[in-house]
Design brief:
Elements: H1 8-19, E1 26-31, E2 37-39, E3 42-43, H2 50-56, E4 64-67, E5 78-82, H3 87-93, H4 99-106, E6 110-113, H5 117-126, E7 130-133, H6 148-159, E8 164-167, H7 169-177, H8 181-204, H9 211-224, E9 229-230, E10 235-238, E11 259-264, E12 266-268, E13 271-272, E14 275-280, H10 287-303, H11 313-330, H12 336-341, E15 380-383, E16 386-389, E17 394-397, E18 400-403, E19 409-410
Parallel strand pairs: 1-7, 5-6, 7-8
Antiparallel strand pairs: 1-4, 2-3, 4-5, 9-12, 10-11, 11-14, 12-13, 15-18, 16-17, 18-19
Amino acid sequence: MRYKPLNQEFYIRNRQNLVQEIEKDSVVIVTSNDEYPRCGDTTHPFRQNSDLLYLCGIDQEETCLALAPWHPNKDYREVLFIKNPSPEMITWFGHRLSKEQASAISGIQTVVFVEEMDSVLNNILFHSQHVYLHLPESSRSKNDFPTREVRLAEQLKKDYPLHSYHRLAPILNPLRAVKHPEELEALKKACDITAKAFRRAKAAVKPGMYEYEIEAELIYEMMKNGASGHSFAPICASGADTCILHYIKNDKMMQDGDLLLMDFGAEYANYAGDCSRTIPVNGHFTPRQQAVYDAVLSIYKDTIPKFKPGMTIHKINDFVFKRMDEELIKLGLYTAEDVKKQDPARPLFKKYYMHNTSHFIGLDVHDVGERDWVFQPGMVLSCEPGIYIAEEGIGVRIETDVVVAENPIDLFEGLDL
């Protein structure tokens, strides 16, 4: 394993906090992610279900967790199902956790191989009235792919139709949103590795290089420092493509006079760093590029102190949108009079700043959390203003990760602004 799991007490505490919120005579069932086929008998790299990892720390495929705190048999109140590490499987695929190792990581005493899962779950469900399940759901997108979680829900409803089924997300998401000290340490490590990767990449940039060569510099430094890889598909966009928000081709030669916008992050212990920096390919901004960069930097610096308890993403956006008007007017892109006459449903700044300023960060780079949630100490969010002037081929974005506090903590403070 590339990283040391968070301490056992962290996972025990998370399970205790969760079961305090569920109805009496309930069971919580959370399963691992699928292994997705790539071709032939090979698979894409496995990435654990963040909810399962948060509750038990087991970072391997074919894992399932059942929490039934009212079960009459105390041995069945917490049950962890794991893959059987047979000698044949180890020969082909390498180390898998033993029951003892899984118990040491998770703090769960009853560890069972998945071959026995059906019979054990049958016993647990017999003594339960309510079933809490997690599905891959989000207020901003709908997942139509039949994941392992979806298939498990369908099978349980078929086999146990008289139980009452509930969504786990409304309970677990608010718990995950406030980060514990152990999580903040992992996030800080992810950000430190991300910062090292940026400095390496920045030192390599020069006209005539390809964007993918910069991507290679990023991933080299990340892997060298213990990251599992990128926390999302990295953006290395130069020239006119700095105005493409999710440009990930990274296949163009960088030209003298171009800007290079990098949006990337290292993943460490499954926690995500997320950083954006925009630099001139030849080391020198043109006057216009400098003016746009300074406008974004000014908004960025003004916004970070706003990440205090009591704020919301909506309030952060309102502040940034007002500042955006001020800076875009200074850049001559429209006038104050134009703003007075604008259609409120189609504000002028949206032509040059199309996205929101912030999202939650944690076990996922776009972590659980809603835009109207009130910030609490320990939440971690991005701060990423940007200005994109497509007709001039100038796109600038600057992004950091911020820990909510009375004095907000910039996890990339001082990183080559």
